[in-house]
Specification:
- This protein is of the alpha+beta class.
- It is 30% helix and 27% strand.
- α3 runs parallel beside α4 and α11 packs antiparallel against α12.
- The longest helix has 18 residues.
- The N and C termini lie far apart (45 Å).
- It binds adenosine-5'-diphosphate (ADP).
- Adenosine-5'-diphosphate binds next to β7, β10 and β15.
Length: 387
């Protein structure tokens, strides 16, 4: 294939990078990874693994020099270095300017607002004193402007007394939305301005940790909301002149509005299911987009439920192995184990995608898997009989 002499660099070497490598093999593309964690799974899988900080200008420039294309699997990267690389002839997708806007939750919101895209209303906050002056806006949702992920940069402020424990860093104070459903749409766009998007997924969160528990696709939403979500996603891709893929997380409010919560200009967990349930995976779609190929078909051929495998407290490796063995005995359960070292409670260790001809059957299979996983929280009970 023509592509085989291309060298693509990825900033970040977590599980998303790992899944991208898997699909790059199908295209005969060589992948180089820049990642600071030597224990990252991609250290074993990529032909060229550089241990280094994606936020460091010199490191990123040195890494990218000589590569054909650079892309990202996380937003925390040095944007100036990407601009330098682009001026040296390296193709950078998504464009550094897109990453720059999205790195800051407030500038992201401003950009969308300026394009007439509905967002959750919010104001910038410059510290505790500033926040105290806006106490009349509570309850609200306070978010770090930069570097929040997996709910770690988000806190709910119920009343004025919550302010003393609030973030001191620059943040955004959002109105508390009455959320009926959280959905996400992945959109792709290439240099030829072809645009395509996947069906919305339903994201079900664990309210305690604000971390995703599982997600269903297609989302159980009205046809009108699905159309609205797709239109928003297509418009966002157009407004950014995106080359690559982007996940658009949205809230469907109890009042029936669809509001953009946040954007991720890279492969995203809300697209995990595309590997098994769609004609083209989000990873293949990203490679197609950044290499200038036609975009692939996004049609779903199965209903799916994606279940995150979070490390339970006090769970031995042996118990986890036993659970994985039981899960793999369930038909149409597809395991993705990220190969992370260490077993800190709450960490995303992998995920399972269940596929089925319809959602009812997917629910049945997912219930079996949840049953197995629930046993992991009581490791002394031992066996995992099911079905
Ligand atoms: P992260 O990028 O860390 O995942 P999010 O912005 O997605 O952060 O917020 C995490 C979760 O917090 C959301 O999925 C949602 O459940 C809840 N949340 C976020 N913003 C609001 C809001 N304005 N009102 C109500 N709940 C919110």
């Amino acid at each position: 294939m023509m592509a085989s002499d291309k060298h693509i660099g990825i900033l970040g070497g977590g599980q998303l990078g790992g899944m991208l490598i898997r699909h790059a093999i199908d295209f005969g593309v060589k992948i180089a990874i820049l990642e600071s964690d030597l224990n990252a799974a991609t250290a074993q899988y990529s032909g060229h693994f550089t241990c280094g900080d994606c936020m460091d200008y010199d490191t990123v420039v040195a890494f990218g020099t000589g590569l054909d294309i650079i892309t990202i699997e996380k937003e925390a990267v040095n944007v100036e270095a990407l601009k330098t690389l682009r001026s040296k002839g390296v193709k950078v997708h998504p464009a550094p300017e897109i990453i720059e806007i999205i790195q800051d939750k407030y500038s992201q919101k401003q950009f969308l607002l300026s394009k007439g895209i509905p967002v959750v209303p919010g104001i910038p906050i410059h510290g505790l004193r500033d926040l105290a002056q806006h106490a009349d806006r509570l309850p609200g949702c306070l978010k770090l402007r930069r570097n929040g992920y997996d709910g770690k940069g988000v806190m709910m402020l119920r009343e004025a007394t919550d302010i003393e424990n609030a973030f001191t860093e620059p943040s955004v104070l959002e109105e508390l939305v009455s959320i009926q459903q959280e959905i996400a749409v992945i959109v792709a766009r290439n240099e030829q301005s072809e645009v395509t998007c996947y069906d919305p997924v339903d994201m079900v969160f664990n309210p305690k940790r604000l971390l995703l528990d599982f997600q269903l696709c297609p989302a159980v939403i009205s046809a009108a909301h699905a159309i609205q979500a797709r239109e928003i996603a297509l418009q966002v891709a157009e407004e950014f002149r995106l080359v690559g893929i982007m996940a658009i997380e949205m809230f469907v409010t109890t009042g029936g509005q669809v509001l953009v919560n946040e954007l991720a200009p890279r492969p995203h967990n809300s697209g995990h299911h595309t590997i098994e349930a769609a004609a083209t995976s989000q990873y293949e779609q990203l490679l197609r987009a950044i290499m200038g190929y036609s975009l692939g078909n996004t049609t779903l051929h199965s209903s799916s439920i994606m279940i995150n495998l979070l490390q339970p407290e006090q769970c031995t490796e042996q118990h986890m192995q036993q659970a994985l063995r039981s899960i793999l005995a369930v038909p149409n359960a597809h395991l993705h184990w990220y190969g992370k070292k260490g077993n800190k409670a709450g960490r995303k260790m992998g995920h399972i995608t269940v596929t089925a001809p319809d959602m009812e059957q997917a629910e049945e299979t997912a219930a079996r898997i949840r049953n197995i996983l629930n046993h992991l929280h009581e490791p002394t009970t031992g066996s995992y009989h099911h079905g």
